[in-house]
Amino acid sequence: MRGLVEAASFPLIEAIHGRRSRRFAKGASxxxxxxxxxxRHAPAPLDPLEQMLLIAxxxxxxxxxxxxxxxxxxxxxxxxxxxxxxxxxxxxxAGFNTSEFFFTDDTGVYFLPTRGMSPLPSSGGTDLRAWLDxxxxxxxxxxxxxxxxxxEMPHMEGHNTxxxxxxxxxxVFPVADLAQHVILLLLYLVQNGTGIYDNVNRRQIPGxxxxxxxMNLEAAYPMTxxxxxxxxxxxxxxxxxxxxxxxxxxxxxxxxxxxxGLNPFTVLGASGDPAVPGLGFRFEMLEGNPLPHFTxxxxxFEAHVPPHHASMRSAVEAAVARKFGAGGPFDPKLGxxxxxxxxxxxxxxxxxxxxxxxxxxxxxxxxETFGRFPATVPAVFLKTYLQAHRLDTDFYDRHFAPGAYLxxxxxxxxxxx
Length: 417
Fold this sequence. Notes:
Helices cover 33% and strands 15% of the residues. By secondary structure, the chain is of the alpha+beta class. Strands 5, 6, 7, 8, 11, 15 and 16 form a 7-stranded antiparallel sheet that branches.
């Protein structure tokens, strides 16, 4: 297909400099103002191949992750930060990989898990068909029909009501297990000889004094700082994932853009309207907090907190198992990019029972003190969306000077027919 050949050879520098938020899809209408225009075309879905290429570029596995090689405090062992054996199309802080991806189009609502995906066997180069097929096989259909996000406030920002989640479009969005990210940061601190203190209540966490032989509590981090660090980490992870997809839009010749103007509570499932169930995530309304506290979509995407884990201890243990268990980055039985994979993977420092105990103590303190974990940021976080649609170039020809869209946009329908 000509469009696939064009996408595969599209220059990166042209994608970067040609990236724009091109919101006017086929079937769209701007009813008033200096840019008023009504499309004469019916909405049209993406070609299945280009949709899969876009989704896999945004969320996909791209080969083996390279482990952290050295830290003087861990020597002669390697650091054990990473929690995924495979790399993805975007960076993740310390290789934590705490986000997964959902998407919706006219046919349904879908989940594409890739953070635990091992790379395909490769003899060099990329078998694009096999790569796309492997990602397609992981897609889980959650519901029929497009996710209902009413085109009105408070579900959608007013400037997006005419163009967001429109018929024909594909909407892709990452959701992060921020609770797991905080646990992984706590494990990181413990292994580096410190922890956190409760700066909200201005006190040390009771019990940590028992571990003075390995922890410098004078260097402890404020709890809220650590949680804000985790929130920033996952925001960057999700934003760069969507940016990778935005660059692919240029190569494919699709309209669309990266944005934040959809209400995450509506999308996750706390709209308060039975006709707008969203994804159906479980949530609680906690005393003193006006916002819903989401914990997960049972059986699909469950954050590392109760009730999806029996206790904070089991959540911590699950995070450790993700590193060292079957298929994890430190599983010596797993393949990889090294000449001696078993030697390298078994060379990481262990997370000892005492480190698990200390991390659990801090996590349990937060959970019991604040009635939630984390204390000041969401356990489940959604912020960034990537939309793709067939661009109506007539709108740009009418209102813009030449150069408002790329040659791939001009040739899209012919290339993907």
